[in-house]
């Protein structure tokens, strides 16, 4: 390969071109030639390692499915012509560890490809790069000539999934592990207990799952299956049992652990609730000692998450006994009591060889310096933790349930501290407003922005280039197994009933769902509220609107052909005609369709005005802007994303010298 090896920043705008890699490698140089993938394509691995063998088999199956070409794979000594050679110096099949070497080198030229890594984790990462490199050309599939020397910026690149608010069975978890692996994420943080459900089988305390889960829990065999599945993909599994708050589900079976007498029932609503473990009774610690002995044996990772967020102090304040205990120990506030609890839990975990992680509320004086702080209430806590000598991971700014844009998450950088206390970050998927059908579309593709931010060098931050790569990667993630794209059409079909599916799709393509803040304010939600409406089907960032925005920005010059914009705006104006209101779900779509029709009509007026060549008056422009502002307000818990390209046209009109404003 002749290409010059240069750092990603030097490539500058070239990053926007192919290849569509996420995360972008730390060093990449494009070559001139290409490696054709034809029926002679073969893969050989020069190492014996079960995890490697499985990974290569998965890669070959994926390549065959994508290209339609049967591909040979072999393990052992290399002989004859080989298309892809994989060298691994020291195969490591064990459970992955924080700080494992994930680096790899990849060389692709017309003569063949070589993937080299110190341990098999690097091979896993390199195979994902290879899979993303596959391109279709006029003469068939090929790998572009390239030299890549890659390694992660941060060792902790996670996804947290809440399986308590909405139950997420094993297949949902596994397909998301596949997608995580595809973008080189390496920590699966499993939020296993909360007020609304206790999701793990305990053999020692079976009433936890028997009374606290509605039957929706993982058996210990299933937990082991998921851990093995993750391990095979180079992903660590961190369990979280959230205590002492967010603990209602524990108390249904074991009310004696509560700070108030009970009885308790599984919580069906969303929010912060009063039930809290009693930090003052020795019996609480006896219970937790036995419970944690069981769970620390089940989960092999040395890191263990104890939650610790959002403690409602009502029960503590109301109990004379708890207040007397606090006074006796000189605790002035509820956080003092929480700190005491954490110190006790940290000691138990330490006895079992585990390192405690908690949400940033656990950052009090007195916990041992080994603790890891997960920053969620604001980025400041990450710096504060580092200053005090604790290691930290960033989740503030990575909350996927808020439905911010990929660009928002992409720009949120954990930063670095000289002491190396910042381990990385985690995207967080809380599941009050998603179920098994919609969870993937709230994680993907936006979590890929977090994946790149945490893997790629800090100076890889061109948002336009990232977007250019995100669209193809998003498509390929659906082939990997997540259903963020594939669940869209059936959900719209179901809403449509007997009406025109195409008209519903036009509306859904033109809107974007709001996140937790707007949804919780809009109506009362509980665990039994169906998540089957337009807001649930619509995806957080509309690709078709993004395309229209590009057209609108390009289409502002006089004489520009705006046929596609005109056709789309016309379609929007026609929507209401084709949407019946014969059921509850459709009535809502029909009302959004009427608003969309207004946006379309304004868009057409702007195009007509532009076409006339006459200048628009300032008042005319202001009036349109005000209408658009109004149409952009939340309705049916969605945003009319369609407003954006129309506003782009209007903005261009007030700027364009060819369409100077007359007064
Ligand atoms: C949290 O979002 N309560 C950690």
Describe this structure in words.
This protein is of the alpha/beta class and 663 residues long. Helices cover 42% and strands 16% of the residues. The chain is built from 25 helices and 20 strands. The longest helix has 29 residues. It binds acetamide.
Which overall shape is indicated by the principal axes computed on the Cα atoms? Answer: globular
Q: Which regions contain 5 or more consecutive residues with pLDDT less than 50?
A: 1-16
What fraction strand? Answer: 15-25%
Judged by helices, strands and strand pairing, the structural class is alpha/beta
Q: Specify the helix fraction band.
A: 40-55%
Q: Output the radius of gyration.
A: 27 Å
Main beta-sheet annotation: 9 strands, mixed
Count all strands and give the number: 20
The end-to-end span amounts to 62 Å
Summed over residues and divided by their number, the pLDDT gives a mean of 93
Q: Which hetero ligands occur in this complex?
A: acetamide
Total helical segments: 25
List the helices and strands and how they pair.
Layout: E1 6-7, H1 8-11, E2 27-36, E3 42-45, H2 50-67, E4 72-75, E5 84-88, E6 104-109, E7 112-117, H3 120-133, E8 135-137, E9 140-150, E10 156-162, H4 170-182, E11 187-194, E12 197-198, H5 207-212, H6 220-232, E13 236-241, H7 248-253, H8 282-298, E14 303-305, H9 314-318, H10 320-328, H11 334-351, E15 355-359, E16 372-375, H12 380-387, E17 391-394, H13 406-410, E18 422-429, H14 439-443, H15 447-455, H16 463-480, H17 488-496, H18 501-509, E19 511-513, H19 516-522, H20 534-537, H21 543-554, H22 563-578, H23 584-612, H24 618-631, E20 638-640, H25 643-655
Parallel strand pairs: 3-4, 3-5, 5-7, 10-11, 10-18, 11-13, 14-15, 15-16, 16-17, 17-18
Antiparallel strand pairs: 1-2, 2-9, 6-7, 6-9, 8-9, 11-12, 19-20
Acetamide binds near residues 310, 359 and 376.
